[in-house]
Amino acid sequence: MGERLYVVAGELSGDAHGAGLLRELLVLRPGLELRGAGGPEMVKVAGGGIVDWVEDAAVMGVWEVLKKYGWFRERFARMMIELREFRPGILLLIDYPGFNLRFAEAVRREFPEIKIIQYISPKVWAWNKRRIPKMARILDEVLCLFPFEVAIFEAAGLKASFVGNPLVDQLQGVLAADISRDARLVGLFPGSREREVARLFPMMIEVAAQLRNWRTDLNFEVPAATEKLAVEIRGQIEKAGAAGWIKVRTGGSHELMRQAGCGVIASGTATLEAACLGIPYCLVYRVAPLTYLFAKLLVKIEFIGLVNIIAGEPVVEELVQSDASPNKVAAELKRLIESPGLASKMQGRLAGVAAMLGEAGVEKRAAGRVAAWLKASPTLSFMTS
């Protein structure tokens, strides 16, 4: 039996990171057989062995997960059957901790010989440090995106390696491109999940309307992560009567971050991309009230945004729940537009955060760690044909 790896990613960002790692891993181990669940980018790299489930799996918030509990339970059971039949030596989990850590626990219990690697460590240092000892029992190694995470996990006895942040690799092309910034262009970044877009984009349209009334020379663009989201976004724009002055592009969020003078960005990975690409912005965050109540009880850190967490201070304005209102967001963007010095200062601080993410070659380093485990893992014999 040749080398086999089962991989799970449950969101578009994890799909992109997973595709990069798998691409490098197949260079190192060209005979590797792959199975698992991910998204369209991983399918392109690995072929038919990967099931594209991200549009269904990428739900956000306690209530949203509970509504799909039956679907997740069925998928969980099916993946355990696939694992039993496939006989992998390695289980590679990419981000998506709510599902993946439960899956890892079940795999460790039933198949103790499988080596389990977590790529993109869950931010338990923010919301539940008590889970770290449990992670140490069920994982063999965690590949960290931030340097400070290594000491946190190793203190609990979990092997941890800082490989850097995959954004550094993904953004090399756009960083090298000759793109000039347009001070009159405002970027609207409502996120990559349907519910997130439904919750945030109507507010962003109102923000754009206020700014347009304030200055008629401003232009507005919004990137859609998928064509399906582009249809939803265009529908919202048409409903608001803004079709003539808000432009939609499918993909191209990185290019827009290089071009726009400022922007409003949904909390998540995009805020870190914005730091690397140098766009001054304000962060917005809105979830269902029940989800926010749970988060307030669990999260023990001062900030929501990754940039502020990494910096340990408020680099960008965070507008959360009711504060993520059209008036407050528009006021913050006006400050950035009116004060080039303020925007420039923010760009300098964003560059400092970006420098902490490591050097290029992240996906190659992460693939190297996985390849080392593959080399050390014997063909499994705990299951029968």
Question: Explain this structure to me?
Answer:
This protein is an alpha/beta fold. It has 20 helices and 13 strands. The strands form two sheets. A seven-stranded parallel β-sheet has the order 3-2-1-4-5-6-7, with helices on both faces. It has a six-stranded parallel β-sheet with strand order 10-9-8-11-12-13, sandwiched between helices. Strand 8 (182-189), helix 12 (194-214) and strand 9 form a beta-alpha-beta unit. Helix 1 (12-28) packs parallel to helix 2 (40-46) and helix 12 (194-214) packs across helix 18. Residues 381-385 have low confidence and may be disordered.
* Rg measurement, Å: 21 Å
**Which whole number gives the mean pLDDT?**
90
Approximately what portion of the residues adopt beta-strand conformation?
Answer: 15-25%
Q: In percent, how helical is the residue content?
A: 40-55%
The N- to C-terminal Cα distance equals 12 Å
Number of strands: 13
Q: In this structure, how is the largest beta sheet organized?
A: 7 strands, parallel
Morphology call: globular
Strand order of the largest sheet: 3-2-1-4-5-6-7
Q: What's this, in brief?
A:
By secondary structure, this protein is an alpha/beta fold.
Supply database-style keywords.
385 residues; alpha/beta; Rossmann fold; 7-stranded parallel sheet; 6-stranded parallel sheet; 53% helix; disordered C terminus
